[in-house]
From TrEMBL:
<comment type="function">
    <text>Subunit of the peripheral V1 complex of vacuolar ATPase. Subunit C is necessary for the assembly of the catalytic sector of the enzyme and is likely to have a specific function in its catalytic activity. V-ATPase is responsible for acidifying a variety of intracellular compartments in eukaryotic cells.</text>
</comment>
<keyword id="KW-0375">Hydrogen ion transport</keyword>
<dbReference type="Pfam" id="PF03223">
    <property type="entry name" value="V-ATPase_C"/>
</dbReference>
<dbReference type="InterPro" id="IPR004907">
    <property type="entry name" value="ATPase_V1-cplx_csu"/>
</dbReference>
<dbReference type="GO" id="GO:0046961">
    <property type="term" value="F:proton-transporting ATPase activity, rotational mechanism"/>
</dbReference>
<comment type="subunit">
    <text>V-ATPase is a heteromultimeric enzyme composed of a peripheral catalytic V1 complex (components A to H) attached to an integral membrane V0 proton pore complex.</text>
</comment>
<comment type="function">
    <text>Subunit of the V1 complex of vacuolar(H+)-ATPase (V-ATPase), a multisubunit enzyme composed of a peripheral complex (V1) that hydrolyzes ATP and a membrane integral complex (V0) that translocates protons. V-ATPase is responsible for acidifying and maintaining the pH of intracellular compartments and in some cell types, is targeted to the plasma membrane, where it is responsible for acidifying the extracellular environment. Subunit C is necessary for the assembly of the catalytic sector of the enzyme and is likely to have a specific function in its catalytic activity.</text>
</comment>
<dbReference type="InterPro" id="IPR036132">
    <property type="entry name" value="Vac_ATP_synth_c_sf"/>
</dbReference>
<keyword id="KW-0406">Ion transport</keyword>
<protein>
    <recommendedName>
        <fullName>V-type proton ATPase subunit C</fullName>
    </recommendedName>
</protein>
<comment type="similarity">
    <text>Belongs to the V-ATPase C subunit family.</text>
</comment>
<dbReference type="GO" id="GO:0000221">
    <property type="term" value="C:vacuolar proton-transporting V-type ATPase, V1 domain"/>
</dbReference>
<keyword id="KW-0813">Transport</keyword>
Length: 229
């Protein structure tokens, strides 16, 4: 359980990262879509990232310059497009960023907060590589452990099953222990036929225990998950 939990935790972290990288532009990580030359940052100017609905791109291009008086003309550039949205940049004076966001939201455009950082991008890349490596190491270790343990677990299970059959037989038929314990392995299609044969062999009141049509079978088996007749 510990090994499975550790492996599942790593898989969950990778799944979260993959969702961020493959989701829509409204929620996904944008760092791998942005290049340094796409962002303008100076004492007075900043570049914002706008998420524009795919079918509203003409509206964006015709209106973004008028959303505030301090927007740099013709500064918007499309960087990426998916099935729902398009990603645009826009450059403007830092002092009007808040007003621009409000006016953009009123028009149905989402301004994503983003700060380009090569260090952070490299850190996320290294984190992803480490998680992928950890996942493979844990998966290999878990599989090897399962292969090595399966024989022992299965043998133990058969041992418990044999003990249980013996005890059930003593409780049902009494002492001395004059009965035969056997293993039958019919195909799935032959199971009902085998039960009918066993029912005929019993030839007494106990024959009803072989029937599968009713619920005379006992809920049993290891862990209570297997039918017993």
């Amino acid at each position: 359980q510990v090994r499975v939990a550790e492996y599942g935790n790593v898989k969950s972290q990778l799944g979260a990262i993959n969702r961020k990288q493959t989701g829509s532009l409204a929620v996904r990580d944008l760092s791998n879509l942005i290049k340094p030359e796409d962002m303008v940052t100076s004492e007075h100017l900043v570049t914002l990232l706008s998420i524009v609905p795919k079918y509203s791109q003409k509206d964006w291009l015709s209106s973004y310059e008028s959303l505030d008086t301090f927007v740099v003309p013709r500064s918007s550039k499309k960087l990426y497009e998916d099935n729902e949205y398009a990603l645009y940049t826009v450059t403007l004076f830092a002092k009007v960023v808040d007003n621009f966001k409000v006016h953009a939201r009123e028009k149905g455009f989402q301004i994503r907060d983003f700060e380009y950082s090569p260090e952070a991008q490299e850190s996320r890349k290294q984190e992803l590589e480490k998680l992928l490596q950890d996942q493979e190491v844990m998966r290999t270790s878990l599989l090897q452990w399962c292969y090595a343990s399966y024989s022992e677990v299965f043998s133990s299970w058969m041992h418990f099953s044999a003990v249980r059959v013996f005890v059930e037989s003593i409780l049902r038929y009494g002492l001395p222990a004059r009965f035969l314990s056997v293993v039958l392995a019919p195909s799935t299609k032959s199971e009902k036929k085998v039960r009918n044969i066993l029912e005929g062999l019993c030839g007494n009141a106990n024959s009803s225990y072989w029937r599968s049509e009713d619920d005379v079978g006992m809920a049993a088996g290891l862990g209570g998950e297997t039918e017993s007749h």
